[in-house]
Design brief:
Elements lengths: L1 H4 L1 H8 L12 E5 L2 E4 L4 E4 L2 H4 L8 H11 L14 H11 L8 E5 L2 H16 L3 E5 L8 H5 L4 H4 L9 E4 L14 E6 L15 H12 L2 E5 L13 H4 L6 E4 L10 E5 L1 H4 L18 H16 L2 H15 L5 E7 L2 E6 L4 H12 L1 E2 L1 E2 L6 E4 L7 H22 L1
Parallel strand pairs: 3-13, 5-6, 5-7, 7-8, 8-9
Antiparallel strand pairs: 1-2, 2-3, 4-10, 9-10, 11-12, 12-15, 14-15
Helix pairs in contact: 4-12, 5-12, 13-15, 14-15
The protein binds pyridoxal-5'-phosphate.
């Protein structure tokens, strides 16, 4: 049987699995807003690989930057030792877009690693150890990032994790009182992603900022999903009018390549360099090829109209997805959750969309909503075509499973 030796079977046999129900989409190639399977079927990517491919797949400028850097050099020495143009140029370009206090970046390889670094730095800088995160948050799967999530059903199997972490309810102003002069850092997503896109109430992030300033607690914003134009501003904190002490970035940063960064004031980041020196080190963080990709990604975002067009596309999706089984569409820009009237519809909508050629996905902590985070490069016409597929999937679920 061909199936026994197929790539799919080998994938199940030899590649570590994350769940018992993998999607099993066998990828051949991806270009722009489309992913193609090995049978030649074309899918609209409406998730961007969980908010990564904001410029779509294989953006020509990103690919060109990668190739150019490959022709110069790849890894030469662990992060922090050699002076490498791609790291410097990216840091200069990124920090020029930010508040003057966010003037320095520590490069890492993934989002979770950035959260780990932020937690360590907060302890080192404040001499405190309590860290507060919000219920319903997801910040990654390493032990430090894992302990920030409030859902103990997930973390129970991995106990003991790291002591000293407490949770507050997102958007609850009274809960901010729990932040005290014992708190090293408060870590929140400006828009909660995995709870099914929960934007901040208008006053929430400002009140959080004030409380952190008052208690001399470091305010850490996890912009790993919200960053790089996803919410309609380059970074969500700019949209919501606050400046964090540290910003965590990743996902879309590398234009499809793996990279993360902890952004803060250079004096704060400098705490990693002394007492102890080499307080945080990484072999591959700031890899030159990946930094070149990140720089090209940011250049495209800054020069094209994609970010300014986000609001128009967001409004279009809201208007189009009015449907009897859609309860509400929550969004901050093109970070969107479509909540269905009944939970039972969800898997049928996701399954039918897949069958019809559109990739949507579930959330970690919301079993009534599906995720929409399309690449920002969709034209209105392409969006119209993709929404037609989604509406078909919604119709199907309504008729068949009512
Ligand atoms: C808000 C947020 N923070 C951190 C992470 C962890 O990033 P990574 O998977 O790159 O470790 C994720 C991943 O989904 C995320 O959504």
């Amino acid at each position: 049987m061909a199936g026994l030796t197929s790539k799919r079977q080998l994938f199940l046999d030899h590649v570590g699995q994350t769940s018992t129900y993998p999607l099993m989409l066998e990828i051949d190639r991806a270009e722009g807003i489309h992913i193609y399977d090995t049978a030649g079927k074309r899918y609209y990517d409406l998730n961007s690989g969980i908010s990564v491919s904001s410029l779509g797949h294989r953006h020509p400028q990103v690919v060109a930057a990668i190739k150019a850097q490959l022709d110069k050099h790849m890894h030469t020495m662990v992060y922090g030792e050699h002076v490498q143009a791609p790291q410097i140029e990216y840091a200069e370009l990124l920090t020029a877009q930010l508040d003057a206090s966010l003037n320095s970046i520590y490069y890492l390889n993934s989002g979770s690693e950035v959260l780990e670094a932020a937690m360590k730095l907060a302890k080192r800088a404040t001499g405190r150890y309590e860290i507060i995160s919000a219920s319903g948050a997801y910040h990654g799967s390493t032990q430090g990032a894992e302990v920030l999530r409030s859902d103990h059903d997930y973390s129970r199997a991995f106990l003991p994790l790291i002591p000293g972490v407490r949770h507050i309810d997102f958007n609850n102003l009274e809960d901010l009182e729990k932040i005290s002069c014992r708190t090293a850092a408060v870590i929140v997503e400006p828009v909660q992603a995995e709870s099914g896109v929960i934007p901040p109430d208008p006053t929430y992030l400002k009140a959080l900022r004030e409380r952190c300033t008052y208690t001399k607690t470091l305010m850490v914003l996890d912009e790993i999903q919200t960053g790089f134009g996803r919410t309609g501003a380059l970074f969500a904190h700019q949209k919501y009018g606050v400046v964090p002490d540290m910003m965590c970035i990743g996902k879309a940063m590398g234009g499809g390549m793996p990279i993360g960064g902890l952004v803060a004031d250079r004096e704060l980041l400098g705490k990693f360099t002394r007492f102890p020196d080499l307080g945080h080190i990484t072999t591959f963080g700031g890899h030159p090829v990946v930094c070149a990709a990140a720089k090209a990604t940011l250049e495209v975002l800054l020069s094209a109209e994609y970010i300014s067009e986000v609001a128009q596309k967001e409004a279009y999706i809201h208007k189009t997805l009015q449907h009897p089984i859609v309860k509400e569409v929550r969004s901050s820009g093109l970070m969107m959750a479509v909540e269905l009237t009944k939970r039972k519809y969800l898997k049928h909508v996701v399954g039918k969309a897949f069958e019809e050629g559109a990739l949507i996905d579930y959330f970690l902590f919301n079993n009534r909503s599906f995720r929409l985070a399309p690449p920002l490069i969709y034209t209105m016409r392409e969006l119209e075509a993709a929404m037609t597929v989604l509406l078909k999937a919604l119709d199907y679920a309504e008729k068949k499973y009512n």
